[in-house]
adenosylhomocysteine nucleosidase (Paenibacillus montanisoli), 230 residues
Amino acid sequence: YNKIGIIGAMVEEIELLHKHVEKTGSFAKAGIEYVEGMLHGKRVVFCKSGVGKVNAAVCTQLLIDAGVDCVLFTGVAGAVEPSLNIGDIVVSTSCLQHDMDCTPLGFARGQIPFQETWEFHAAPELVEIASQACETLFPGRSVKGKVLSGDQFVADRGEVRKMHEELGGACTEMEGAALAQVCVMNDVPFVVIRSMSDKADGSAHVNFNEFTVQASVNSHRIIDEMLKHM
Ligand code: ADE
């Protein structure tokens, strides 16, 4: 990879990149600042997308327009897979928009009407590099799985159970599937790395506030380790 794009949604998720990347330049577009530099001898461009699918989509397209040849996402998520605990990590095998819902028209939940694909697959090579990095840093604490994205902070046990049973999700967050769709539309490889800040249940808001900083640090460390092998 010649130029690696890295996105985080929140300040906690990218402030460590500000510390560790040797900066060579920056530019701004659509209200987003893109920082260019070097990390472990690799050219990177990183940015804070802001929260939600629209922010993530615009940010990803602009990164691709800036010439990156892959996109990594670092951040936190709510656990959906029952075996996952706070601090565990999900590496995306694919991403799907759980709030895309045209079921009254006979489409499946998550299906984007008139489109063949609505589950966007991560690049197998990036999934492997990410999983290896997880095993090096946090042995036994990561899974590969489906990331469910929507413009909702999920904090309901029943909803989480449905997301697991009906959609087969491993975790839920608010950007991954938008980034994934834009990457697939442009034929650019991607992977999403999410550390669990909460279990998307009745305690999610409390846990999110308590664990987001540590979970963001974990995600960042994985990206940092990945860069050594890319
Ligand atoms: N990001 C972290 N926790 C989340 C949750 N419970 N729902 C959506 N996005 C999240």
